[in-house]
Each structure stands twice: as C-alpha cells, then as structure tokens.
C-alpha cells in the first residue's frame, strides 16, 4: 500500500478576459468548483494507477468538506485517516485569463491543523510500502511521518512543493525526491546530492533520474497535444509512487505517460489517468 500525507483543497476557478487590477471589479466568463490539493490529487493519481492508497489529512466543517471526502472515496482512496476539524476546508482561489496567465491564492484552512499524527496514523505509515508527501501540510508533520517511515522500512518519496528549505532531519530520511526544474534550482545541488534518488520532471521533455551511485536514466515524454498542464505533476508523482518498486526506468516511463495523458484533459483531479489508460498509451 501507499500512504499519502498531504493537503486537500477545493479549487475555486474563474476564467476572465484579463485579470483584475487592485481595486477593480470585472465580469468573469466561467466559474467551477473542483476538488484539488496536491496531497489529494497525488493520492487519487496513485489509486487510479492501480495502488491501494490511504490518505492522511484534514477537511473542515464547511460545505466543501463533504464533496472533498466524497471525491477521495469515489476514487478508491482510503479515508479512515481523513480528519474533520472545525473551521474552513483548504481552498485555492484561482483566476485564469484568456492567455492562460493565472493568479492564485491558497488558504490552508484545515490543512494547517495537521500538526501531529495519531498512533494509528503512524502505524499506517510504518506498515505502508511507500509514503508520499508534499509540502502543503506543516513541515514538522511531514518530518515526523518521514522519520517514522524510515525507521520502519517504508520508502519515503517527497514532492517538495511549494518549495521551501528542507530541515536536515527531513532531508536525511528522504529516499526519493520528485521535483520540477524550478524546484530543483531553488533547492540547489547540495540538497539534491543528499538524497539517494532524485527524479526531475522537465515538462514536455519528460523526466530524468539520478541514482545513489550517480547512475542516470532519461525518459522522453509521450508526444501529446497538451491542452491543460494542471495536474500533470500530480499524475506523474502518483504514478511514479505506484511503479517505483519496478525500478527507475520502468517507473519514469510509467509516470511520464501518466503526466502526458493528464495534459490532454482539463482540470487537476479530473485529468488523472487510470492504470489501463497508462498501459494503453505505452503500448500504442
Ligand atoms: P509541474 O507541472 O509539476 O511543473 P512538469 O511540467 O515537469 O511538472 O510536468 C510533469 C510531467 O508531466 C512531465 O515530466 C511529463 O511527463 C508530463 N508533461 C508535462 N507537460 C507535458 C507536455 N506538454 N507534453 C507531454 N508531457 C508533459
């Protein structure tokens, strides 16, 4: 099994001709509510890619909470460790203009309350084959989960997004980093060198792997007509986690296919491919 510790948000997405200036009120064209959050998206990506997945995180007590939970359940993500806390669920308020430029405000809400892990949650982490985390829940909690995973032989995979400095006690228990080239540049070579396995995504160019003995794998992406790259990174991370035990070459190939498929569909959680779809894309 894969245990995902991370965020779950409702994305409030408006499209407009141009983004409003400060103090300005404008008319938008469309509005949509879509379940998101990197944690939930990657958990759904892994479940669709064929793994048994448990999610550790929190929703609030507002009207979004029910739909966020239901989205995880409908995608076969285990929610026994999804807490409901007082206050608002996490939200991302997103505006996209006609050129595709966006402005985004994320309010952590319930995600910020995941400050400690229960004995049951720690035990789920310790019993999993792999722990997958991002940085949209408090860093201390990610560090505690990752340390417990390492102590119990669970592989620790981290997508350090949104990028921030990694404390030494987290860095030393990471097995696999998955990052894009911007995050890679921001963390810097010394941090990357401290992690045994580093997977760097390169958008339309695919992804690269660097192993503990300096071995390298380069996987090109599938040629697709990308219409919306939202969710591509999450599709990649979820699929990589599922295929990791098959070795880096196979895992990157599988993850690149998942990422490419996600770019051909609109939205984040709605664009994540199934195991059959990934398999079909690779045998074409
Ligand atoms: P992020 O969205 O996190 O910045 P990337 O843009 O690097 O990450 O995309 C993640 C993965 O999604 C890539 O490694 C690749 O497999 C796939 N992908 C992204 N954009 C494209 C594209 N235009 N064509 C094909 N595959 C893509």
Brief write-up:
The chain has 284 residues and is α/β, with parallel strands linked by helices. The chain has 10 helices and 13 strands.
Can you characterise this structure?
The chain has a single domain (2-8, 37-88, 110-283), classed as Ribokinase (UDP-N-acetylmuramoyl-L-alanine:D-glutamate ligase, 3-Layer(aba) Sandwich), CATH 3.40.1190. It has a nine-stranded mixed β-sheet with strand order 5-4-1-8-9-10-11-12-13, sandwiched between helices. The chain is built from ten helices and 13 strands. 35% of the residues lie in helices and 25% in strands. The protein has helices spanning 38-48, 63-74, 119-127, 139-151, 168-171, 181-187, 189-193, 232-243, 248-263, 275-283; strands at 2-5, 9-15, 30-36, 53-59, 77-84, 90-96, 102-107, 130-133, 155-158, 176-180, 197-201, 207-210, 216-219. A hairpin with a 5-residue loop joins strand 11 and strand 12 (207-210). By secondary structure, the chain is of the alpha/beta class. Bound molecules: adenosine-5'-diphosphate (ADP).
């Amino acid at each position: 099994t894969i245990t995902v510790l991370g965020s779950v948000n409702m994305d409030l997405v408006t499209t407009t001709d141009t983004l409003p200036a400060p103090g300005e009120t404008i008319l938008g064209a469309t509005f949509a509510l879509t379940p998101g959050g990197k944690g939930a998206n990657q958990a759904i990506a892994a479940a669709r890619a064929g793994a048994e997945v448990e999610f550790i995180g929190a929703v609030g007590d507002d009207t979004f909470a029910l739909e966020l939970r239901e989205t995880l359940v409908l995608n076969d993500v285990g929610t026994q460790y999804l807490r409901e806390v007082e206050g608002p669920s996490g939200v991302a308020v997103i505006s996209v203009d006609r050129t595709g430029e966006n402005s985004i405000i994320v309010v952590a809400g319930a995600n910020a309350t995941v400050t400690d892990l229960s004995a049951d949650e720690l035990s789920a982490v310790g019993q999993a084959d792999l722990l997958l985390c991002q940085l949209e829940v408090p860093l201390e909690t990610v560090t505690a989960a990752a340390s417990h995973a390492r102590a119990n032989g669970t592989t620790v995979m981290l997508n350090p997004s949104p990028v921030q400095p990694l404390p030494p006690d987290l860095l030393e228990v990471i097995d696999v980093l998955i990052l894009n080239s911007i995050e890679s540049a921001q963390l810097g070579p010394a941090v990357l060198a401290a992690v045994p396995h580093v997977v760097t995504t390169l958008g339309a160019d695919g992804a690269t792997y660097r192993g503990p003995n300096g071995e390298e794998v380069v996987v090109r992406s599938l040629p697709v007509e990308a219409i919306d790259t939202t969710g591509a990174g999450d599709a990649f991370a979820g699929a990589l986690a599922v295929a990791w035990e098959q070795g880096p070459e196979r895992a990157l190939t599988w993850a690149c296919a998942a990422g490419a498929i996600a770019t051909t569909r609109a939205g984040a959680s709605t664009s994540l491919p199934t195991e059959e779809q990934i398999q079909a894309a690779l045998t074409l």
